[in-house]
């Protein structure tokens, strides 16, 4: 209830701000759309809660909504900060540069909102198909107005001759990246020399890219006479590798909680999904080329991640790359086996390096570090050529402690030897969204008795792609399809788990009714009356004779039966005796039967 009340306060604050919506000079329609969707989402949830919950149930039924509502509160607060930035008139030029081509409204805030709403509806056992359709229609209208953007490269004097332009410090170990102060705001600047004209297509392409999980170039300045180029970008706190190293410390603590790690994995996968949809392949994806910064509000360790160092050559005007990155890690540990094999044979891995599946392999290694805090192979004694040979031979990092199988399975599929067996980033994003849903619906995931998914999400993805082959294409799908995708996942999960339960039930009932003789020899626990008489010599003799008869395989003639007719075997396995036992006393499975994994009808009842 407290989270829902706080969400209402933020919605009220946004409504008050929108009194001045005509004064919004940057991204006005995006802000109005975002407020409208947040308001509609709040009303929908309120209506469903009113219909399905009672106030006196707040200590029981409401509990399951706490974690999803907390997530929704965080998303709406981040949206409020975005709208306030667009409304604020101070430093107008800075905001125009930062936000003129910004897609955060749709690709970040509305994406997160649409991911969260179905989770809340499922958690409260509610459904609002009409509302989802209205939200999707609104979003599609907004997406349809987006078109191609024409970029211009401005003269460098526009930047360097500005009165408040100031270089503050170098970023990283190289000389290309600097932090600058310009128009009263801090930016990251990439400054390099060389023949600029051949780079115009690459620079123009990067200027056209816009996604919340890739580094976006706000503007570019060139001086063709001096052969130099300036690219102004968002300033991030640090790279992911340095951040993990600082958090883990000498004690090698786990860097992130499971929800935060999965959120980072999803952000990186979304950035790569966007790049691949533009036919841009990274080729050097590793934690040093992922920049992070803390969110604007206190979000329990959640970070904003952006993929960088793609597209435009990262070594323009610089000597050839060294054998290790800026954090002293060998790049070989991030490269796929086929890349290393190509490098071994030809000395040049560019043909295999810039592929979709090579990037997926690198992503799998990043997932390993996010989940464990350990650099892949850091405990190994092999380096250089030996490390390369072992990776090509199939060696992979070992998870140092127990982690949920649904995460380790996904990671292992990403670093599979066969590139064709690795999932696409579109599939990875769908799986991670559903894992995120599972974690939100089971907030006590750190407890030993935590429930686990009944099916493997990678298997669900394989089944779904047969029904929706267009989802396997490299073209990125609009985020308005996310609620439907999560609904399809939920249907497939329930169907697959029902099939598994039926198979287990049928095999268990078959084993209990007509199982092998070894299963029927084990006696159930005796009743109290049997327990008292079991020590008598007569009882012992009867049991010995009974077991001897059941073990004898020779046919026994029934007195008075025709010659040659065989007497049927005892009915202890599937006849009257078992029914009498089940009715007269509690049937308890023996250890030998339990080990088989089958479940009998008596256990299910």
Shape: globular
Percent in strands? 5-15%
- Class derived from helix and strand content: alpha+beta
- List how many beta strands DSSP finds: 9
C-alpha end-to-end distance: 37 Å
- Low-pLDDT parts are 125-151, 317-323, 514-537, 547-605
Into how many domains do the coordinates divide?
Answer: 3
Oligomeric form = single chain
CATH top level assignment of the largest domain: Mainly Alpha
Largest beta-sheet characterization: 6 strands, mixed
CATH-defined architecture of the largest domain = Orthogonal Bundle
Number of helices: 24
Strands of the largest sheet, in order across it? Answer: 1-5-6-4-3-2
User: Averaged pLDDT, please?
Assistant: 73
Characterise this structure.
The two termini are 37 Å apart. This protein has 24 helices and 9 strands. A 6-stranded mixed β-sheet has the order 1-5-6-4-3-2, with helices on both faces. A 3-stranded antiparallel β-sheet has the order 7-8-9. Strand 5 (217-223) and strand 6 form a beta hairpin. The protein folds into 3 domains: 2-144, no CATH class; 154-232, 2-Layer Sandwich (Phosphorylase Kinase, domain 1); 240-487, Orthogonal Bundle (Transferase(Phosphotransferase), domain 1). Helix 1 (2-17) packs antiparallel against helix 2 (28-52), helix 1 (2-17) runs parallel beside helix 3 and helix 17 (457-467) packs across helix 18. Mean pLDDT is 73; it is low at 125-151, 317-323, 514-537 and 547-605. With 605 residues, it is α+β, with helices and mostly antiparallel strands.
């Amino acid at each position: 209830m407290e989270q829902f009340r706080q969400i209402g306060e933020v919605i009220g604050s946004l409504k008050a701000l929108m009194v001045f919506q005509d004064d919004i000079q940057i991204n006005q329609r995006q802000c109005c759309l975002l407020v409208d969707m947040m308001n509609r989402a709040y009303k929908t949830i309120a209506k469903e809660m009113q219909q399905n919950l009672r106030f006196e149930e707040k200590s029981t039924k409401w509990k399951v909504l706490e974690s999803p509502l907390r997530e929704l509160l965080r998303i709406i607060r981040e949206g409020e900060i975005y709208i306030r930035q667009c409304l604020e008139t101070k430093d107008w030029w800075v905001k125009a540069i930062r936000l003129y081509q910004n897609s955060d409204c749709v690709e970040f805030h509305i994406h997160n909102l649409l991911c969260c709403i179905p989770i809340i509806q499922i958690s409260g056992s509610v459904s609002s198909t009409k509302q989802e359709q209205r939200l999707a229609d609104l979003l599609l209208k907004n997406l349809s107005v987006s078109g191609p953007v024409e970029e211009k490269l401005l003269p460098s004097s526009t930047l360097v001759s500005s009165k408040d332009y100031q270089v503050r410090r170098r970023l990283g170990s190289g000389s290309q990246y600097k932090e600058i102060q310009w128009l009263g705001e801090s930016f990251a600047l990439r400054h390099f020399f060389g023949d600029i004209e051949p780079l115009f297509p690459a620079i123009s392409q990067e200027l056209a890219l816009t996604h919340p999980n890739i580094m976006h170039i706000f503007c570019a300045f060139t001086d063709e006479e001096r052969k130099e180029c300036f690219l102004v970008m968002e300033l991030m706190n640090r790279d992911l590798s340095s951040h993990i190293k600082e958090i883990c410390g000498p004690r090698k603590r786990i860097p992130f909680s499971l929800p935060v790690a999965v959120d980072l994995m999803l952000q990186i996968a979304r950035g790569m999904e966007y790049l691949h949809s533009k036919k841009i392949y990274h080729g050097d994806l590793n934690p040093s080329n992922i920049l992070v910064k803390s969110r604007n509000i206190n979000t329990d360790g959640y970070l904003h991640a952006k993929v960088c160092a793609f597209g435009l050559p990262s070594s323009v005007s610089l000597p050839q790359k060294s054998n290790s990155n800026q954090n002293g890690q060998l790049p070989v540990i991030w490269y796929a086996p086929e890349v290393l094999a190509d490098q071994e044979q030809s000395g040049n891995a560019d043909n295999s390096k810039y592929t979709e599946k090579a990037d997926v392999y690198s992503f799998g290694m990043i997932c390993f570090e996010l989940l464990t805090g350990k650099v892949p192979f850091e405990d190994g004694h092999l380096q250089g050529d030996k490390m390369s040979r072992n990776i090509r031979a199939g060696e992979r990092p070992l998870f140092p402690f127990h982690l949920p199988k649904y995460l380790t399975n996904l990671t292992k599929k990403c670093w599979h030897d066969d590139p064709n067996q690795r999932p696409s980033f579109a599939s990875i994003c769908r799986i991670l969204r559903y894992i995120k849903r599972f974690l939100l619906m089971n907030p006590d995931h750190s407890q030993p008795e935590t429930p686990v998914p009944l099916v493997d999400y990678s298997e669900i993805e394989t089944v779904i792609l047969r029904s929706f082959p267009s989802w396997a294409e490299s073209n990125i799908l609009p985020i308005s399809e996310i609620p439907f995708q999560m609904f399809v996942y939920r249907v497939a999960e329930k169907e697959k788990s029902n099939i598994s339960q039926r198979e287990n039930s049928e095999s268990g009932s078959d084993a209990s009714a007509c199982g092998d003789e070894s299963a029927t020899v084990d006696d159930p626990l005796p009743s109290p009356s049997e327990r008292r008489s079991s020590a008598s010599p007569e009882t012992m003799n009867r049991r010995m004779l009974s077991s001897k008869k059941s073990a004898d395989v020779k046919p026994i003639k029934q007195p008075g039966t025709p010659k040659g007719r065989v007497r049927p075997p005892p009915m202890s396995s599937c006849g009257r005796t078992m029914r009498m036992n089940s009715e007269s006393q509690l049937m308890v499975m023996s250890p030998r039967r339990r080990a088989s994994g089958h479940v009998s009808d008596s256990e299910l009842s």
